[in-house]
Model the fold of this input.
Amino acid sequence: MEPLEAVEALARRARAETPPGTNVNIGAVLRTARAEPQWRLTPLAWSAAVSALAACAILSLALHSNKSTTTDPIAPLFNAAEVQMP
Amino acid sequence: MWRFTRDRGTQAELVHEVFVQVYLSLPRFRPHRAPFEHWLFRIATRVGYQFWKSQARRQRMQPLGEFDPAAASATDQTNPAAAAETLHRLLAQLPSADRLVLTLMYFEDCSMKKIARRAGWNETLVKMRAYRARKRLKRIIEQNQMTEYLTGISHGTT
Done:
């Protein structure tokens, strides 16, 4: 018999086993569930938070690049000096 | 949860955890999308799988070398519980994801589609894992020269 055929035959026999039952203490279940942290974010809240962070990052980058290229008051002076050099 | 552990105490803890998760996830249950039973099975499968993963992180798997077929054959192998115990220990040698696929396949006789639904995985991924897991299992059996032993148990002749 092939190894996997042997395992399948073993599984057929194993499926006949009756698993033992377990009692559930509903009071303990409720106590544990209520003790769980309630601050978990839902998928929608996660996506909103990530979008807001991404928007902030893009905005901050845009403002920074804008400032460095167009609002530097000394840059035109240097450019003018270079042009007038013999 | 008996398919995830053979220890009665751990089984009780896992069942407790399943009910806690059911209680916490109840607001997200959509009756029109799936029957309650399917939803419950999915939560139970996830809890069992997480248990295996945490167990694998905590301790290395028990090598099969410690499993003595001679000692095991001293017990009543015609008993389905003994066959289930052997199969459980054999599947415990596999990584958690492979183990889950083969446990649902062998113990619960689940189809690929059903395994995909219960594990929350894609059906193609399940097929690929089943193929890989069976290949690994075959290698483990051959390396430990267990084919004859397993054949004996499955026919109740050892």
In short: The longest helix of chain B spans residues 36-58. The two ends of chain B are 28 Å apart (CA to CA). The mean pLDDT of chain B is 81.
